[in-house]
Amino acid sequence: MLTDRRRDLTDFRTLLETMLARVDWSRDLIVVSQTAQDSLDYTGPKAHHGSKAMLLGLGSRSARSPSGGSTDRRCRGRRPRARYCRGCLVAEGAPYVREKDQAARVAKFEGFREWPLVVLVDDLGEATASTELFLWTTFTRMEPAADIHGREQKVARFHVGLEPPVVWDCRMKPWYPEVMEVDEPTRLLVDRRWRVRGLKGRQAEIRLTPLHGPSVRSCARDAGRRPSDWGPFSCARRPTSRPRLPSSS
Known about the structure:
This protein is of the alpha/beta class and 249 residues long. It has seven helices and ten strands. The strands form three sheets. Strands 4-5-6-8-7 form a five-stranded mixed β-sheet. β4 (81-85) and β5 (88-92) form a beta hairpin.
């Protein structure tokens, strides 16, 4: 995200409102559709392949900057939804394996037409429980080239422009590793050491999502070792030797 407005980056709701008040979806969303990915980013179609996006929110507020509509008008009886901030609606969708094309249909739904941005998630309560969980859910479960949908799209000068609402499909996909949650003995151990070492702030909460590291089981399988052999904090494969740099000639 790029803006020329001075904002507190720790206040993501205000930052997102700033972006949505200025973005022109026909020009300000730039997607690099086929590029390299981090080895531990599973959102792309295959290992080391995927896409990146840049969203611009520059200049003065748009004269028609929408604030979003009601969360339930013309939507009664449908799945849960909640306003995250001005202009952004978070909606709970069906599992991706059951309704793969739901995000594209949501983008054309008349009840959401007044919303610039709709974020489609698996669990509304979890995704909106905190800023951290919103960021984690949104930006680790969405690949721009595959998971961004608009009500309409138009190609001009090799650029794809969208008409809002724009939907980000941030549901878990079948090829993502399962989400890992810390076991109780490990949580207690970390909390105890947190206090012993005099670290300030809230106690540590470990919740590993699939996009920033494979599951403990898959790591152990690859390395031929049991998860318990690695101790409570290891998840990545341990290198057997330091790689050598090529010598200069």
